[in-house]
Recover the amino acids of this structure.
């Protein structure tokens, strides 16, 4: 299976997955539906979260969702004139509202031309029974994926980063979604304070055992005006180097089943907001180094799963 056909990739990329499924390019369009987050409402949010929260690269919140969608679509059409679209509700917690509100946000987008699916970023503690029933209905009508933030499989880490839920809650949510045949993508962060390389690899093993459908791997980056920034400035702790991050990601890929789709292998913060590490700004360098490491070491996703 690896390297993937007509690529130099030794892991199962999202682009490859979509091209195999739909026969052509599929673009994700990030949207900001102006949802909030219970972790912000009830506290200060996760310690790495900026005032803007997740989804800083989603659409302009001052535009309605159709306008947001069409603005990005126009740009993408210049490069890929013949493509399908996945609407990605990215910013904050996109099931943190009544089902009535969710329908008002999601349904109009699904009616747009060439929209084949919807990705919904949310939290494991924000899917009620009523919401789950609606998601089951959506799943019958479109290509639905639920993206859940986990960050770490260690409760001690989740407590430190003020995640607001524990690992048990995440597991229960994944199983409820899987019982409805809804695809699940998990988000994790490498380099969280106090975590060793082995702990990060164990988080990948944990998700592999849960039989998730996809994963997003991020490097911890310290953003201005966050609680994490205050902690770091008061007592700087060692951050992963680029080489360390590449090695850890490859080890994580090795323990993940070959059928798990890799949605992301690094983050891309805004330069003006970033404190450290600066190497995360070089997204394509990170990805190229991962490719080179895997090729040079004759390894691939699933080798140890």
């Amino acid at each position: 299976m690896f390297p993937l056909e007509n690529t130099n990739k030794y892991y199962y990329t999202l682009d490859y997955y979509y091209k195999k499924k739909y026969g052509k390019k599929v673009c994700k369009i990030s949207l900001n539906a102006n949802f909030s987050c219970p972790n912000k409402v009830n506290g200060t949010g996760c310690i790495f979260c900026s005032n803007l929260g997740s989804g800083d690269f989603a659409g302009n919140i001052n535009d309605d969702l159709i306008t947001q969608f069409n603005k990005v679509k126009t740009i993408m059409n210049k490069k890929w004139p013949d493509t399908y679209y996945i609407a990605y509700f990215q910013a904050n917690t996109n099931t943190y509202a009544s089902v009535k509100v969710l329908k008002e946000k999601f349904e109009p987008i699904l009616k747009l031309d060439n929209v084949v699916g919807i990705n919904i970023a949310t939290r494991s503690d924000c899917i009620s029974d009523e919401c789950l029933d609606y998601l089951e209905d959506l799943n019958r009508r479109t290509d639905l994926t639920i993206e859940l933030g986990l960050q770490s499989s260690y409760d001690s880490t989740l407590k430190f980063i003020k995640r607001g839920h524990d690992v048990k809650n995440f597991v229960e949510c994944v199983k409820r979604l899987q019982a409805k045949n809804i695809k699940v993508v998990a988000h994790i962060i490498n380099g969280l304070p106090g975590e060793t390389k082995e702990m990060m690899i164990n988080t990948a093993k944990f998700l592999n055992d849960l039989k998730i459908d996809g994963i997003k791997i991020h490097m911890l980056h310290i953003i201005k005006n966050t609680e994490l920034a205050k902690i770091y400035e008061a007592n700087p702790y060692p951050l992963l180097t680029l080489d360390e991050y590449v090695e850890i990601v490859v080890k994580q890929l090795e323990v993940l089943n070959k059928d798990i789709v890799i949605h992301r292998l690094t983050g891309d913060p805004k330069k003006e907001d970033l404190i450290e590490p600066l190497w995360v700004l070089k997204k394509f360098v990170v990805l190229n180094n991962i490719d080179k490491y895997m090729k040079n070491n004759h390894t691939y996703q699933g080798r140890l799963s």
Observations:
- The chain is about 40% helix and 15% strand.
